[in-house]
Amino acid sequence: MDRFVIEGGTALRGRVEISGAKNSALPVLAACLLTDQPVILHRIPRVKDIRTMMDLLIHMGMSLENGETGAVTVRAGSSLQPEAPYEVVKTMRASSLVLGPLVGRYGRARVSLPGGCAIGARPIDLHMRGLEQLGAKIEQTHGYIEATAPEGLRGAVVHFDRITVTGTEDIIMAAVLARGETVIENAAREPEVVDLSDLLRKMGAEIEGAGTSTIRIRGVKHLTGAEHTIIADRIEAGTFAIGAAITGGDVEVVGCVPEHLTALTAKLRKAGAEVTEPAPSVLRVRGTGRLLSEDIVTEEHPGFPTDLQAQYMSLMTQAEGIAIVSERIFENRFMHAPELVRMGASIRIDGRQAIVAGPRRLTGAHVMASDLRASASLVLAGLVAKGETIVDRVYHMDRGYEKIESKLAGLGARIRRTQ
Ligand code: EPZ
User: Is 125 a pocket residue for ligand 1 (Cβ < 6 Å)?
Assistant: First the structure.
C-alpha cells in the first residue's frame, strides 16, 4: 500500500497547472449514457475515481477511447446493460450518477445502494425521491435500487428538502429526455452542476438556470454527441493555494477559475496571505510570514467548500489565535484532526465544531489518511512540520488528485512515494 514520505520545512514556490475537475468529469461521463453518438471530452483528470467510472461505463457496454491528445471519446455500445454492480459502487458512491441517465434514456436501472463512507452515511434518498417525482418506480431489494419507468419519465417540480450536488445532477440527467418541463427547486449551485449543464446543452438539452437554486429543463426527444472541456478542479486549486500559505511560499496556481474559489481566497486574505490574480485563470498566493486565525463554516456553494475544510484546518494550526472550524455538510469529517494533534496541533472537537489554537510547531510523524481530503490535510501539515512525516493509505489521495507528488515536488516540496 503506497505511502508518502515528506521532509518538512521547504516553502512551495513556482507554478502549478491545475487538472480538470474530478467532480465535474464524473457526472459528465455519466451523461454520455444519454446519447448513442460519440462524446469527445478534454481535460479528464487521470485519477482513481475517474477510472472507476470509466470501468463502470465499459461494464454497462459503453466504449471509451483515449486519443493521443489525452481526449477521451465515449460511445454507446450495441447493447447496454443498465446495471451498476455492488463491486463497483462500493468503491465509489458517485456511481449513483448513472441512475438518472439510465432511467431517463432506458427506462430502467439497477444500481447498488452505495454504503456509507468515512465522512458520513451519505444516503441517496433525495435522488430516489426526485426520480419518483418524475414518474419512476423505485424499489430497494437485496441492497440494490431497481428503478423503472416503462412509459418514460414526465417533467415535474422536484423540490430538494436539502441541497444535494449529485442529487441535482442525477435529476437534471433524468429530466433532459422526459416529456414536458421539469423545475428543480433548491438545486445545488456548484460550478460542476453548471459544467454538466453546459455539456448537456451542447448535446441539445434545453436547460436554464444552472448555477442558481432553480433549474428549468424542457425535455427533448433525443440528444446528440458533443465535444467538451472539463472545468478546472477548484478543490485541487484551493489545496495548492493553502499549501502556499501554510509553507510561507509563493505559488502561481495556473489554469484555475478564481471566481470558483472566492470563499477560500477571502479567508486566506483575512488570515494574512497575499492573494492576487496576475492573469486570467491564474491565482497567485504568497505567505507573508504571519498567519491569523479565521473561523470558517462549510456551506453549499458559493459558501466555503466542505472539500477544503480539512486542508484549511491544517493551515489554522499555524495561525495566531483560535479558529473555529464548523462542518455543516457532513456528520463525520474531522478524522484528520486526531492525526494533526499527533503532529503537535492543538485541536478540540465539539460536535460539528473543531476549535484550533495556534500557532503550534508541528513535528513530523507517521500518520494515516482516512479519506480523500483528510489525506491532503496531512500532506500539507507534513510540508510545514519539522522532520519527516509518513502518510499511509495515500490511495485515498489518488482518488482525486492527479500526479500530486510530482506537482508538489515541482514546487520544491521534498516528497516521495514508497510502497
Ligand atoms: C458531492 O457529493 C461531492 N462529490 C463531494 O465531494 C462533496 O463533498 C459534496 O458534494 C458536498 O459538496 C461529487 O460531486 C462526486 P451532497 P454528494 O449530496 O453529491 C446529504 C470529494 O471530496 N444527502 O451534496 O454526495 C449528504 O449526506 C467529495 O470530492 C442526503 O441526506 O454530496 C450530505 O450530508 C467528497 N440525501 C449533504 O446532503 C441524499 O440523497 C450534502 O451531500 C443526498 C445527500
Answer: yes
